[in-house]
Amino acid sequence: MMNKDTLKQDMSQFINLQNYIGLKLKLNGTEVVNCIPIAASNDLLFVLRYQDFMPDGFEILRLMDIQSYDYSDSCRYFEEIVKKEGAQSLLSDSSDINISNWTTVFTSIKGLDDIVIVDIGKEDAVIVGRVASILEDSVRMHCFSPTGVWDDEEWAEPYKNITGIKFKNHYTNIYTKYLPAK
Question: Is residue 87 part of a domain?
């Protein structure tokens, strides 16, 4: 178990140096999030995610879900590659997201009017759609089916269930182009 203060301090250094790291998450013991950290708050970490040297959007994770991190020689080498492939321009283009807490995150994302993927802490359990409204203890979403049909009713999810958010990634970018207007 990583000490939260040590983790925040280490993440601050990675953010300042724009380091490419691997994060092992507690929820999915085998999943590693390869990323460049952008910002950290007391509870959340905002990252630019990578998959096979290709940027795959932004993600916000709970610090408490980070089991460990890797900044080995292979990460340093991958960092060199992604920086040569333009990581800095993507970092400077990152959305201005307030990651103080889930309320401020969803308020920022609602302003972007982007499709988001909300992880709800169960294996493969996600909500996909647009932020409809932000409440004190939950978010309401306009969701759609895998066939691109918008749900008639909004989905409400308590913040306590949310483990992460992904946006501006390959999946959401493609869906954004082909979804009917809501």
Answer: yes
DSSP string, the chain: ---HHHHHHHHHHHHHHT--EEEEESTTTT-EEEEEEEEE-SSEEEEEEEETTEEEEEEEEEGGGEEEEE--HHHHHHHHHHHHTTHHHHHHT------SSHHHHHHHHHHHT--EEEE-SSTT-EEEEEEEEE-SSEEEEEEB-TTSPBPSS-EEEEGGG--EEEESSHHHHHHHHHSPP-
How many structural domains does the chain have? Answer: 2
**Domain ranges, residue 129:** 102-178
Q: Domain for residue 157, yes or no?
A: yes
In a domain, 88, yes or no: yes
What are the pLDDT tens digits along the chain (182 aa)? 578 889 999 999 999 999 999 999 887 667 789 999 999 999 999 999 999 889 999 999 999 999 999 999 999 999 999 999 988 888 877 778 999 999 999 999 998 889 999 999 776 789 999 999 999 999 999 999 888 899 999 999 999 999 999 999 999 999 888 988 87
Total-model pTM: 0.93
Looking at 92, 118, 135, the residue that finishes a domain is 92
